[in-house]
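INTERNAL TRANSFER SHEET
From: sequence group
To: structure group
Subject: Outer membrane protein with beta-barrel domain

Please process the attached sequence and return the structure record in the designated field. Keep the field labels unchanged so the import script can parse them.
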Amino acid sequence: MKKLLFSAVFFLFSITIASAQLLPSFQFGIKGGVNDATLNLSNPAFNNNTRLGYLGGFWARVGALGFNFQPELYVTSKNVEISDNTGETKAQFTSIDVPLLFGGKVGAFGLGARFYTGPLVSLAINKSQSFSGALNNAVNLNYKDQNFAWQFGTGLDIRNISIDLRYEAGITKQTYGNSQTRVSLFSLSLAVPLIKI
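Return from structure group:
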């Protein structure tokens, strides 16, 4: 009797996990969070200070067989501060970001861990900079209108809340003075599904 009960529980558990991982699913929701951007400056004369930015928008997830595709669309603000012994430049860039992420998920019963990676295209919609000291307008960051990056991340799903931690490695080179640099960032976001099928 105990073996039969154990077998039944194990069978139901296996079906639940298989259903959660194998059957096709679709989700659509909203997300918001913060980011911490940095420039990979090759010139040791410049100091790069990070400043918090924000992100907010929409995401969708289509999954089956334990894997998923997650396209997103959100507005993000990237803030950087560059200084040397003559002054500082503060730059803020607002863009529409579109990551196309591929990954997998493990877990069941409303708790799961995700991992994913994929390309991101960023379309700048606002670029502003302020200068102080002798730098003035002599050295500025020429942030391009269209930029590409690659995202790596992990996420934790707790029932109807998803927490994501990501690293975004800039691919497009930006010009700062006479040097080339790339913008990279870490982001932490909270997502809630509005539709789950």
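Handover comment: The longest strand covers residues 111-133. The chain has one domain: 24-196.
Transfer complete.
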